[in-house]
Write a structure and sequence with these properties.
Distance between the termini: 70 Å
Order of helices and strands: HHHHHHH
Radius of gyration: 21 Å
């Protein structure tokens, strides 16, 4: 019998030692430049939320990113899904029924953040749109703020389509 070879358990450093790999590198090199501080939902929304704020946001996103990112058809997919969840929650019934449906379906609404992050990882949307959309989803706290988020994204999409090249 021949002796079994002894293996060292030392890990070799990866070939790319000293620089971040893949997505880690992308996250460090691309920083969001969009200001979402004026986008708030609730009892006292800014009277300019669906007008000037939505327009400024659309212009900022249309002016940033690469040509193959943030195409209006891609952004529309996120808006369409937000509409779908809003209809399921706010489509009918009294406030109590809407609140119950919201509590039941909110995890699926919040999952939109994962979807936009995935789209960013695939190069379909840029850091600014991901930041905006995650902010909008985070600001949803109940059925009423879901409706306000949907209206904001509706205004944003109208201005974006008029401003963007794709």
């Amino acid at each position: 019998m021949s002796p079994t070879p002894q293996y060292q358990s030392q890990r070799q450093p990866p070939q790319h030692a000293g620089r971040p790999a893949g997505r880690e590198r992308d996250q460090r090199s691309s920083q969001s430049t969009i200001d979402t501080s004026r986008i708030r939902f609730g009892e006292e929304i800014d009277p300019l939320l669906y007008a000037d704020i939505a327009q400024q946001t659309a212009q900022a996103i249309a002016g940033a990113g690469k040509r193959e990112q943030n195409k209006s058809t891609q952004l529309r997919r996120f808006y369409d899904e937000l509409i779908l969840w809003n209809e399921k929650i706010n489509g009918s019934g009294n406030a109590e029924e809407r609140a119950h449906r919201y509590a039941e379906l909110v995890p699926l609404v919040k999952m939109l953040k994962a979807k936009v992050t995935y789209a960013k990882g695939r190069g379909h949307v840029d850091e600014n749109f991901e930041t905006l959309f995650c902010h909008v989803i985070d600001a949803i706290r109940d059925a009423k703020t879901l409706e306000q988020a949907k209206l904001f994204m509706e205004a944003f999409m109208g201005f974006y389509k008029a401003t963007a090249k794709g």
